[in-house]
Amino acid sequence: MAAVQPLRSGISALPEQRPIIEIGGLEKRFATRSGDIVNALTKVDLTIRENEFVSVVGPSGCGKTTLLRILAGLERASSGVVRCDGTEIAGPRPDVGVVFQQATLLPWNTVLSNVMLPAQLKHDKSAEAVAQAERLLAFMGLRDFAQKYPFELSGGMQQRVAICRALMRNPRILLMDEPFGALDAMTRESMNMELMRVWSEERKTVVFITHSIPEAVLLGDRVVVMSPRPGRISEVIDVDLGRPRTLHTMATPRFGELCDRIRAIFGAQSMTATSL
């Protein structure tokens, strides 16, 4: 198992929290149409604690999204163990919400109906479900847009709706696959602040996939750094920055040191790959 490497003596992220996700010896292999076998993930070991915010960063094609899909129960591991609350993940779970790279809203539904979709799939159109959807929209600053359609919203607002939809079932775990990657820089920063507010107030366990090193450090209690394919964990880094964090946190020397350390890991990976 990749050891958590504290950057300063005595630092350990959330030691009092109990494990909620346990990954041991995870391997994922895909068969191509030509019959070749592609190793997407190999020897992945990781424990994620309850209410922890874990960022996962790595190069394109390293298996980040595959890892998240396995945690979501949308893919099965080829070998190894993946457990949630001590139970093997064998399919989608009601206590897990997922936010994808694109908002994937139904264009013919209003914002409120899109948020209501998880309840509607269970044939729940009760007043309580409607009230929950309206509360989430208000929480995300979208109260006045409940009867709008997705095409009437900006990209950032559409992603807020997607987050509301993921929170509709009040999941304990929120899995996010580069949800802000398609947004412009200013909107992305705003969404980072919004997500930290949601996490601090709702106290979910979050696994957040990103290509952005600064984003990973700003958001995470820990940053999981993955290697090129076959993806494995190169290092797990504690982010010893206080909370609450703001955009001003990115200007601090310690923030720069953490980002530089992750860049150095990627640099060493590139040198290793070139020498092979």
From TrEMBL:
<dbReference type="InterPro" id="IPR027417">
    <property type="entry name" value="P-loop_NTPase"/>
</dbReference>
<dbReference type="InterPro" id="IPR003439">
    <property type="entry name" value="ABC_transporter-like_ATP-bd"/>
</dbReference>
<dbReference type="InterPro" id="IPR017871">
    <property type="entry name" value="ABC_transporter-like_CS"/>
</dbReference>
<dbReference type="Pfam" id="PF00005">
    <property type="entry name" value="ABC_tran"/>
</dbReference>
<keyword id="KW-0067">ATP-binding</keyword>
<comment type="function">
    <text>Involved in beta-(1--&gt;2)glucan export. Transmembrane domains (TMD) form a pore in the inner membrane and the ATP-binding domain (NBD) is responsible for energy generation.</text>
</comment>
<feature type="domain" description="ABC transporter">
    <location>
        <begin position="21"/>
        <end position="253"/>
    </location>
</feature>
<dbReference type="GO" id="GO:0016887">
    <property type="term" value="F:ATP hydrolysis activity"/>
</dbReference>
<dbReference type="InterPro" id="IPR050166">
    <property type="entry name" value="ABC_transporter_ATP-bind"/>
</dbReference>
<keyword id="KW-0813">Transport</keyword>
<keyword id="KW-0547">Nucleotide-binding</keyword>
<dbReference type="GO" id="GO:0005524">
    <property type="term" value="F:ATP binding"/>
</dbReference>
<comment type="similarity">
    <text>Belongs to the ABC transporter superfamily.</text>
</comment>
<dbReference type="InterPro" id="IPR003593">
    <property type="entry name" value="AAA+_ATPase"/>
</dbReference>
<protein>
    <submittedName>
        <fullName>ABC transporter related</fullName>
    </submittedName>
</protein>
